[in-house]
Hints:
The structure is a single chain. By secondary structure, the chain is mostly helical. The protein has one domain (3-84). Helices cover 76% and strands 0% of the residues. It is built from three helices and no strands. The N and C termini lie far apart (41 Å).
Amino acid sequence: MPHHLIALAPSAGRASARVRSARTVRRAVDLAPVIHELRAAGATSLRTLAARLTEAGIAAPRAAAWSHVAVARVLDQIERGAKKR
Length: 85
């Protein structure tokens, strides 16, 4: 890799991280109404929410099925997205 590209790598990495973070928050905020409906229907635990999201065919962030950890992360991102608005 040419040396001038190596010098740009740190700022490019930070920019990429900002884009990924913003995309994650947007997806979480988009899922907020679905999670709200699931909670209203009685899905209160993280594991139950994960099962219902998987059953609904909603793609999990990194795996074929939702996990309680992924749901917790999405709930955290929803909260962060709400604070930014």
